[in-house]
Amino acid sequence: MVMRDRFDAALVVAAERAGAEIRQRCAVRDLIRYQDRCELDTTDGTVVARFVVAADGVTGVTARRAGWPAPRACAPCVEAEVSVGDGDFERLAEVARFDFGVVAVGYGWVFPKRAHLSIGLATTRGGENLHVALSRYLDALGLSRVERMDKHGFLIPLAPRSGRVVDGRVLLAGDAAGLADPVTGEGISAAIESGIAAGRAIVRGAEPGRVAADYHRALAGLRRELRIGRGLAHLTYRIPRVRRWVFERSGQKLSDAVTDIMLGDITYSDVVHRAKTWPLRRARRLLSSMLSA
Fold first, then answer.
1. Is it the case that residue 159 has pLDDT exceeding 60?
2. What structural domains and CATH numbers belong to the chain?
């Protein structure tokens, strides 16, 4: 699994090579919109632009200052970079692991890194003490010794922003637009896809109306996939008996399908339409009834 600091650094290098101007430690304090431009008040001075693509996360300042309401729902998460003994590392480092039900209406994960483990929890319901739940999860994993642990928390959007993701000359992308995967919480793929779509829409259209139309059209397929994903997430997290029933009968096929989705080889639509075994067909009918309600 990739380390985020190295991955982010690689993205910065690629952006610079493509001609982007990178401003390190430059926080946005305010956004002022005019008919023909936007001005960003930052800790590094004023930045003037024809359009602004807000990709600063679900709690980012740009969307708030542009007038968008708070996201409808978010999943609180806690993740720890954990250094363990050689025996525990060898036992848990061969595959990525997901454990449903170890936290209320959510799941736990163990992602192997080069020399340590990334262990975390996500829940789709507020009020859970994730620090206590993480301690229980570490115990359940049977870790004999934790040598070092660095924890951090974050929020994952559970649904796209209500209404439009473009307002005048401001476009929302990635988590700021609420485009994270509702099942896995993965958001980098949608952030890259929506960021590219926003850039292309701006290049093609000089007027805000055309930019907005192009961007919304480009996101239509992604938003449909997220709608299907929300239905699958509801079945997975909110109806445990359905999750157990499907996993007992077609767990390996379902796990393989989710892996292929995360790799970008197939989509949620493909999984729903290709469901062949009886348990998956039953889940498909349940999902179809939810989407048509």
1. yes
2. 4-68+159-206 (3.50.50.60), 74-157 (3.30.9.10), 239-292 (no CATH)
